[in-house]
Write a structure and sequence with these properties.
Elements (H helix, E strand, L loop, with lengths): L2 H23 L6 H13 L3 H31 L10 E3 H10 L2 H10 L2 H18 L5 E4 L7 E3 L8 E3 L13 E3 L8 E7 H7 L5 H18 L8 H10 L1
Antiparallel strand pairs: 1-6, 2-3, 2-6, 4-5
Helix pairs in contact: 4-5, 5-6, 5-8
Length: 243
């Protein structure tokens, strides 16, 4: 968790603690939106206290599994990684679809590009970056090898090759990378990577993030329609600040 995100979480916790203390000791907080919520609860919910308690427990239940998963991932990352052959594999196509639809990276990218098709165009680059950094250990069958067996692809390979956007989402395509330099790079087929590497590099998106991103994008589209200019973070932030 980055420093600025941690600061936001602690500020949010401090605000909740202040509201809780004020409610416990009978102090009145002159917060218009909070007063409006209280009035709505009293007028529309048969048991507002029980409703507030259950709502708090429900929201906190979303956070607990995420913290546990992050802690486990951090502890696992400090341990020596097992060999790729001993781990559950994911195909390149499964990794690409996971990145686009289920990963935290993919959902945060939607705030930058708004459209899923634009995020899709970034998946290949991100997968290449992870292979070049050694975070994800890809495997494949060398097409030109005398003994065609799956082998680990050295991270240096990604200095002269990259994931092909038109191949990684097509399970019928055997190859998945293209050369990016004049040097002749081997052609690998039937690419896979350990599921452990994938989920440690790109943790799954938690439910609250998906809801928050969906609502934020929906509000912008509701107000501004579906303009083609909503294609980068600066445009999106400029519009959301105005709103």
């Amino acid at each position: 968790m980055t420093v600025h995100v941690a600061m936001v979480w602690w500020a949010w916790r401090g605000l909740l603690a202040l509201i809780l203390a004020a409610a416990l000791f009978g102090f009145s907080l002159d917060i218009p939106w909070l007063v409006s919520v209280e009035i709505w609860l009293v007028n529309n919910v048969p048991d507002p206290i029980l409703f507030a308690l259950v709502a708090g427990l429900f929201l906190s239940s979303w956070q607990a599994p995420v913290r546990t998963a992050r802690k486990t991932a951090t502890e696992d990352s400090a341990q020596p990684r097992p060999a790729t052959a001993a781990l559950e594999p994911m195909s390149v196509t499964q990794i690409a679809e996971y990145l686009l639809f289920d990963s935290e990276w993919g959902w945060r990218k939607r705030l930058e590009f708004i459209k899923v098709s634009l995020v899709r165009a970034e998946v290949g680059y991100e997968m290449t970056r992870a292979g070049r950094a050694g975070a994800v250990r890809y495997c494949g069958i060398d097409r030109g090898a005398a003994d065609p067996q799956s082998q680990d692809i050295d991270r240096a390979y990604w200095q002269q090759a990259a994931m092909a956007d038109d191949k990684i989402f097509d399970p019928k395509r055997r190859s998945f990378a293209v050369a990016t330099s004049d040097a002749k790079a081997p052609v690998f087929e039937r690419g896979t990577a350990p599921k452990l590497d994938v989920q440690q590099t790109w943790p799954p998106a938690w439910s609250f993030l998906k809801v928050w991103v969906s609502v934020r994008i929906f509000c912008v589209r509701l107000r501004y329609g579906f303009p083609e200019v909503l294609q980068d973070r600066r445009t999106f932030e400029r519009l959301t600040v105005k709103s």
